[in-house]
Design a protein that fits this description.
289 residues, 4-stranded antiparallel β-sheet, 6% helix
C-alpha cells in the first residue's frame, strides 16, 4: 500500500514538474502584433488566444507541440522541448482570402465620431462574422438629437476566381440634414494593390443609385465611382473617392492613423450636392468577440 502511494506521488510530482508555462508573442512578417491568434496544445483540449499586445500564455510539457493559427496565415507547429518563450512570426497564406481586406486585422471594434457642420455625435460598430460566412459588417449612426441624422450600413465578403482575389460588398447610406434628405445604395468591388496584395491598400469600383429630396428637388440617379486607398507612411492611410451621379458630383476623403495597439483616429470629408460634412472619430478594437 505504501509502495503504491509513493509511486503515485512520484508520478504526480514528475508530471507537475514536466508541465510548465510557455509564453510568447505572435506577429506578422511586418512586425504587426496579432490579436486573437489561436494557440493550441496538439492532441489535448487546451487552447488560448493572444491578447491586445499579441501575447499568450499556456501550460505545456516538453513533448507537446503547440499549434499557432490565424485566418489568412500559414499554420505553424512548434515542439516545446526545453523552450520557455516561443515567439512566432506568421507568413501570409495567399491561398486563403478571408482576411485579405481586413483593416488592422480587427475582428470586433467600436467607434465614436463628431460631425462639425451639423453638430452630430455618432457611434459605429465593426464585426467580422466568422465561420461559415466570413462576412465583414460595418454600421454607424449619427445625430444631433434634433433634425439632423445620418446612417450607414455595409456588408462585404472576400472571394477568389482561380487566382484572382477581390472583395464584393453592398452599402446603404442615408442622411437628413437641415430638412434635406439623400439615400444612397451601392454595389462595390475591391481589389488589393501593393506588395503581396497588401490588405491595407485597395482600388474600389462602385455602382449605385442616389435619391435626393427637399422642397425643390426629388431626383433619382444612377452613378458609378472609383475609390483608392493608399498607405502614405507607416500607420497612416488615405481614402479618396469620386462618384458621378448624372450631373451630381460626390467627393469623399478619409484619413486614418493607427495609434499604438488598437486605437485608430479618423478624419472624414464628405460632399454631395448641398450636403457637406467634416467629422472626426476614434475607434478601438475589442478583440475576437
Amino acid at each position: 500500500m505504501k509502495q503504491s502511494l509513493l509511486l503515485f506521488l512520484f508520478l504526480y510530482c514528475s508530471c507537475s514538474i514536466a508541465q510548465r508555462t510557455i509564453t510568447g508573442t505572435v506577429t506578422d512578417d511586418s512586425g504587426e502584433l496579432i490579436l486573437g491568434a489561436t494557440v493550441l496544445v496538439k492532441g489535448i483540449n487546451k487552447v488560448t488566444t493572444t491578447d491586445f499586445d499579441g501575447h499568450y500564455s499556456i501550460e505545456a510539457k516538453d513533448e507537446n507541440v503547440l499549434v499557432f493559427s490565424f485566418p489568412g496565415y500559414k499554420k505553424q507547429n512548434i515542439l516545446v522541448g526545453s523552450q520557455n518563450i516561443i515567439d512566432v512570426i506568421f507568413d501570409e497564406e495567399l491561398t486563403e482570402v478571408v482576411t485579405l481586406v481586413h483593416y488592422y486585422r480587427k475582428t470586433f471594434a467600436v467607434s465614436t465620431n463628431y460631425g462639425f457642420n451639423y453638430n452630430t455625435v455618432g457611434l459605429g460598430i465593426y464585426k467580422r462574422l466568422r465561420y461559415p460566412f466570413y462576412i465583414d459588417l460595418n454600421a454607424s449612426i449619427s445625430s444631433d438629437f434634433n433634425i439632423n441624422k445620418e446612417f450607414e450600413f455595409s456588408l462585404s465578403k472576400s472571394l477568389s476566381i482561380t487566382s484572382f482575389y477581390f472583395e464584393i460588398g453592398i452599402k446603404h447610406e442615408q442622411a437628413d440634414f437641415n430638412f434635406n434628405n439623400f439615400k444612397k445604395n451601392e454595389l462595390f468591388f475591391n481589389k488589393n494593390i501593393g506588395k503581396n496584395r497588401d490588405p491595407f491598400q485597395y482600388l474600389q469600383i462602385k455602382l449605385g443609385q442616389l435619391k435626393i429630396q427637399n422642397d425643390d428637388i426629388n431626383q433619382h440617379d444612377l452613378g458609378a465611382g472609383i475609390e483608392l486607398r493608399k498607405r502614405l507612411i507607416s500607420g497612416l492611410y488615405l481614402n479618396s473617392a469620386y462618384t458621378y451621379w448624372n450631373g451630381i458630383n460626390e467627393v469623399e476623403l478619409n484619413g486614418e492613423y493607427k495609434i499604438r495597439y488598437n486605437w485608430i483616429i479618423n478624419l472624414r470629408y464628405h460632399h454631395i450636392k448641398n450636403y457637406e460634412e467634416v467629422s472626426l472619430g476614434i475607434s478601438y478594437s475589442l478583440g475576437t468577440w
